[in-house]
Design brief:
heterotrimer, A mainly alpha (202), B mainly alpha (637), C alpha+beta (337), B: mainly alpha, two-stranded antiparallel sheet, 20 helices, 5 strands, C: 337 residues, alpha+beta, Immunoglobulin-like, five-stranded mixed β-sheet, 9 helices, elongated
Chain lengths: 202, 637, 337
């Protein structure tokens, strides 16, 4: 090889992109895959332990359906503004992005409050038996993601109001919305297991 | 992207470009540079060195074990100390050496093989190293203070539970897992993103080097397997610290839950260790046979099949636990099936050498050693897949022999070959060939002398994890042979270290491509400049450097005043986007220190998880807070 | 070649015979498993030889003078490409066939092993503790059952079904001459079936790491002729013989009032402890402390005087006894045949 032959120039290419064009999206998706695997295995552990206590949830009242269903309903509702925010951020709509991030932050705080009430009404303690332990484990796992997504949303909300937005930041907003979808989806099997399996199997 | 008429790059413009790129990408010298670097090559090198340090430490533990077992009732080491030693040996080798060193080689080589200037998420990469170092340091300090793990590298409950393993020993072990898994998961995500999004223009998936395929599949295995051990070790810590009952049969828990979760990770884990080595073997075989690996598509399929099958085998570690027979039979079949892709690959490598023009330099010798050793280990694996036979040899030295044959044969031999092969790229110097051959033969002889007798010991009744045995068992002879072999291995390791040390004192005369290999990593200096490639290589086939003609096709246009890389499309690797890369920063180190405090604190008190999250959050905010020029450039029409 | 040669050598030199060897078959189950081993050895041995042969041929071929040509970047350009693809196809078929043979053979034996437990002539329940084995011979009539420790007798030719439980951590029951192993897991009841086919003395050992003295948790297994077995059984069913000499009487008194009775049981006396091994017929056993020492009066003395010195970490405390008391205890225990 005696020299280089330049066959192309990449400088005209864009410096930001959305969805799978952006590296950050891959980072978020990687994180989602990891945590998704953890959730799946946590649910599998729950199902595994069902066989060890007959009937399942014996010695406990089932977790309060009021708070669990309230959380579930609110969470599903929150996915609507989340999806809308994602679309508008993709279109780089600054005004809607600002409002949307504030709305999602408020939604997150509300959900955390409901989650706190859920914890008081689980009717089981983690150190009572394996049932209590796995219920708390699943609830805590999900809550950690609720908290981290909320923190991310609030930071983006602050940034959006104090800085000039650019393509890369809009892309980060859409990635955060993707993460919120994940938080919503992973809740559903946990809700079914924690709130309904002791009622159905108990 | 404008289609400029191909033009030749001129020497003067290249020289000016080099100056600017160096300024933009270089790590400043001195301690500050060392602490703040995000250069994958510097992080990769320290990862490799640290991995080998743990290899030596684990090896010393092995020598202690062999010294104790050389004679019946030798009395050299007492039961408690021995139990800590064998637990640390397994833990160090599996968690602190085997996985990290493969990740380390990938961290260094993958971006170079892709033809890109940086690994994806460079700060995460730096963070991952510090977290790994912290975890390894923590467990070794614990061991030296007599608070090391004592229940084996797989730490079964209830023995490892709060009732039968009091004190902090097992807690440190369980938390070390968290450290090393976070580090490995981070690297896995970086590698997936780099391999899928940062490949050189023209490097379609069908043209990707086999090491990149191996690392891609390995990274997916890491992503799906490691959460299992994180979950299980978290359950263990919480059983021990806050009184949960995941594994307590008296309160609805089950010791087998630990085994299922652990081995769901544990079996893919060994393929996570082994698969990068398969990639290394392919590269070495191709280069030293002077032909492309035979049946590339089959080789890729074999890697992918292995990755999938690896998740379906874990119950073969539990055949003696009394699980339903029908389930056991399924795992026998699955465990046998995984021999198919491996067997196919062995054929293809030998076929490559058969049809090529083999040159038996040290790297290829290690490949030959790999074939002879790993295949034997794979066959004893097929034996272990049979439930009835496993019920005899499970938990005996037969299994110890098996897994050393597949791990040392299948991963460590290729690793040494890879070191001899890529050492000139890392350092600009070649390792000495004569010393290399001595290194190989001593290692090969020592290995078989050590581990072959263990097959026999297992068959004639010697269980695992015993600190002593009675003279009347007549195991002394084979054990003595094994100990002799272990010391031979030690001599070979010393030779290796001397070879490396001596080489590092020689001047950097290796040149860009001393082996006349074909991959993109050989298309730049040895060692590569901070910015990796002065222009972005363009690829038109599987063996770029063998297929290019008089001139090397490249692309220009990435900024030389700011750090950025080129993103290409996932399958066809068409140029798509320019992506900024971070400058040197202290945040990864600070975040790692907070993480360390959080993890170590939670060994002692569960509230550390809450309080420790505060400084960590602060570091993460500092890390992710957007700085730098706003990105709003659209693609030119 | 190395596999077959060394294994053959091992057998030739009778290095594989032994009281704890899976290669020295003394039971039906071990025999069935050895059949799988032999099948495996042949099939895997042949496959290994084929790989080595291909490799050997490659190395031999590499000695030919090699033309200095550019490296081959495209596999399809090599004349050997098509023949090698065919060979690869054949190799894959061979591997699949080999694995099918092995899977089938393994499955057949697996089924045989499972069927063995269907009709048991004898029921035993083994409870594993750190670091000793409680052995309970069960019988529908409770008066025909008895307890012993660390030693099992089996009548030759009869099938024993052994129930396996554990009180503390996971252990594994393994008598290689007779059969494979099975774990004893707290919270689960497992079982294993053994059908010894020749008389003799064999050794079992715990095969799952269970803590400090895992290495010293062995088990004596004696396979008797039917007559010898019945004699042994009758002896075990009998209560402890009353003391005859004054020394023995003193010993019994000490055993009943000192720490011994807290843990140990001797049928027919006031010693009714359940946490340690049953000592009713301790003097008739081959070894003490789960194989730590061969039985003898002296071994017993050493053990009682300092159990921690022999098995550090064992749950038996050091019981301070005056020399006269100790002698009495030894006299008494030595009479418990």
């Amino acid at each position: 090889m005696s020299g280089y032959r330049i066959v192309g120039d990449v400088s005209p290419l864009a410096d930001h992109g959305f969805g799978s064009r952006s590296l950050m999206w891959w980072g978020v998706v990687g994180f989602i895959m990891i945590e998704g695997a953890a959730f799946l295995l946590g649910c599998a552990a729950y199902v595994f332990l069902i066989g060890h206590t007959q009937p399942w949830g014996a010695g406990h009242l089932p977790p309060s359906l009021l708070w669990g269903s309230a959380f579930t309903g609110l969470l599903l509702l929150s996915d609507a503004p989340n999806a809308w925010l994602s679309r508008r951020a993709h279109a780089m709509d600054e005004r809607v992005t600002r409002t949307g991030l504030v709305v999602m932050s408020v939604a997150g705080v509300l959900l955390l409050a409901v989650r706190a009430f859920e914890f008081t009404a689980l009717n089981a303690k983690w150190d009572q038996d394996a049932y209590g332990s796995i219920v708390w484990a699943l609830m805590l796992m999900h809550t950690v993601h609720l908290i981290t997504d909320l923190a991310d949303t609030m930071l983006l909300a602050i940034f959006v109001h104090t800085h000039e937005m650019d393509g890369g930041r809009y892309s980060d907003v859409t990635d955060n919305c993707l993460y919120w979808h994940f938080v919503v989806i992973t809740w559903l099997p946990i809700y079914a297991l924690v709130y309904w399996s002791p009622r159905v199997l108990g | 992207m404008s289609a400029s008429r191909p033009r030749a790059a001129k020497a003067a413009e290249m020289s000016a470009l080099h100056e600017r790129l160096e300024r933009t990408w270089a790590t400043p010298p001195g301690l500050w540079g060392w602490l703040t670097t995000v250069d994958h090559k510097l992080v990769g090198r320290r990862y490799v060195v640290t991995g080998f340090v743990f290899f030596v430490l684990g090896g010393i533990l092995a020598l202690l074990m062999r010294a104790q077992l050389a004679r019946p009732e030798s009395g050299l080491i007492d039961a408690d100390r021995y139990n800590q030693i064998f637990s640390m040996h397994g833990t160090t080798m599996m968690f602190l050496f085997a996985v990290p060193i493969m990740e380390a080689m990938a961290v260094y080589l993958v971006p170079l093989m892709c033809g890109t200037r940086a690994i994806a998420f460079p700060r995460l990469n730096a963070f991952s190293y510090w977290v790994y170092l912290a975890g390894g340091t923590m467990i070794w300090i614990a061991f030296l203070l007599n608070v090391g793990p004592e229940t084996g590298w797989f730490s079964y409950v209830p023995l490892a539970g709060p009732e039968f393993s009091p004190g902090k020993r097992t807690d440190f072990w369980a938390q070390m897992i968290t450290f090393t898994e976070v580090a490995a998961l981070a690297v896995a995500v970086e590698l997936i993103a780099t391999i899928l999004k940062q490949r050189a223009p023209g490097m379609t998936l069908a043209r990707m080097p086999l090491f990149l395929w191996a690392m891609l599949v390995t990274s997916f295995m890491v992503v799906f397997a490691m959460p299992a051990v994180m979950l299980s070790s978290s359950f263990l810590i919480s059983d021990r610290l806050i009184g949960t009952h995941f594994y307590n049969p008296a309160e609805g828990g089950d010791p087998l839950l630990w085994q299922h979760l652990f081995w769901f990770f544990g079996h893919p884990e060994v393929y996570i260790i082994f698969m990068p080595a398969l990639g290394m073997v392919s590269h070495i075989t191709a280069t030293f046979s002077r032909r492309t690996v035979f049946a590339y598509p089959i080789m890729v399929l074999a890697l992918v099949a292995t990755g999938f099958l690896a998740f379906g085998l874990w119950v073969h570690h539990m055949f003696a636990t009394g699980l339903p027979r029908l389930g056991n039979s399924f795992y026998t079949s699955a465990s046998m099936m995984i021999a198919i892709p491996s067997g196919v690959q062995i054929f293809c490598w030998i076929a490559t050498m058969f049809d090529g023009k083999p040159r038996f330099a040290t790297p290829l010798l290690f490949v030959l050693g790999f074939i002879v050793t790993f295949v034997l280990g794979g066959l004893t694996g097929v034996m272990l897949a049979s439930v009835p036979l496993d019920l005899q040899v499970h938990d005996t030295y037969f299994v110890v022999a098996h897994f050393h044959y597949v791990l040392i044969g299948g991963a460590v031999f290729p690793l040494f070959g890879a070191v001899y092969y890529w050492f000139p790229k890392f350092t600009g110097r070649l390792l000495n060939e004569t010393a290399g051959k001595w290194n190989f033969w001593l290692f090969f002889a020592g290995f078989h002398l050590t581990f072959f007798p263990m097959h026999i010991l297992g068959l004639i009744g010697m269980p695992r994890r015993i600190y002593t045995y009675r003279a009347e068992m007549e195991w002394g002879g084979w054990n003595l042979a094994a100990t002799a072999g272990a010391f031979l291995i030690a001599v070979s390791a010393v030779m290796f270290v001397i070879n490396v040390a001596a080489a590092l004192r020689r001047p950097r005369t290796a040149g860009a491509n001393p082996w006349q290999a074909s991959g993109l990593e050989w298309a730049t200096g040895s060692p590569p400049p901070a910015y990796n490639f002065i222009y972005l290589p363009v690829v038109a086939g599987r063996e770029p450097l063998w297929e290019e003609g008089e001139t090397r096709p490249v692309m220009e246009g990435l900024s030389s005043s700011e750090r950025e890389i080129l993103c290409t499309s996932v399958v066809e690797a068409e140029p798509d986007m320019r992506h900024p890369m971070p400058d040197n920063t202290l945040w990864p180190l600070l975040a790692a220190l907070s993480t360390t405090a959080l993890f170590i604190g939670s060994v002692f008190n569960e509230w550390a998880l809450v309080w420790g999250a505060i400084p960590l959050t602060a570091c993460l905010i500092g890390w992710f807070w957007p700085v730098g020029t706003p990105r709003r450039k659209e693609a030119a029409a | 070649m190395r596999r077959v040669a060394t294994a053959a050598l091992c057998l030739l030199l009778a290095g594989c015979a032994g009281v704890q060897s899976s290669m020295d078959v003394a039971g039906r189950q071990a025999g069935d498993i050895k059949g799988v081993w032999t099948l495996m050895l042949w099939v895997c041995g042949v496959m290994y030889l084929l790989v080595l042969a291909f490799l050997g041929w490659t190395l031999w071929r590499a000695r030919r003078p090699l033309a200095d040509a550019p490296p081959l970047a495209d596999s399809a350009l090599s004349p050997a490409d098509r023949p090698m693809q065919t060979a690869l196809g054949g190799w894959m078929v061979l591997i699949v066939v080999g694995l099918l043979v092995l899977t089938f053979g393994s499955f057949l034996v697996d089924r045989r092993l499972a069927e063995a437990g269907a009709r048991a002539d004898l029921n035993i329940r083994v409870t594993a503790n750190q670091w000793w084995w409680q052995v309970e011979y069960q019988h529908p009539d409770p008066s025909q059952g008895f307890l012993t420790a660390n030693e099992i007798h089996l009548p030759v030719g009869k099938t024993a079904k052994i129930e396996l439980v554990a009180t503390d951590v996971i252990h594994s029951f393994w008598v290689p001459n007779l059969g494979g192993k099975q774990d004893l897991i707290p919270g689960r009841v497992n079982d294993i079936t053994l059908t010894p086919t020749r008389t003799g003395r064999f050794r079992g050992q715990c095969a799952e790491f269970c803590g400090l003295q895992h290495s010293n948790m062995a088990l004596d297994v004696i396979v008797d002729s039917p007559a010898a077995y019945e004699a042994w059984r009758a002896r075990q069913l009998a209560s402890a013989p009353p003391p005859v000499t004054p020394g023995q009487a003193r010993g019994l008194a000490v055993v009943q009032t000192a720490a011994c009775a807290n843990c140990h049981q001797i049928q027919g006396t006031e010693a009714m402890g359940k946490t340690g091994p049953d000592l009713t017929h301790v003097a008739g056993r081959r070894s003490i402390a789960a194989g730590a020492l061969p039985y003898s009066r002296g071994a017993l003395a050493a053990w009682i005087a300092d159990p921690q010195g022999i098995k550090p970490g064992a749950h038996m405390p050091i019981v301070q006894l005056s020399p006269a008391d100790l002698n009495g205890v030894l006299d008494y225990l030595d009479s418990l045949k």
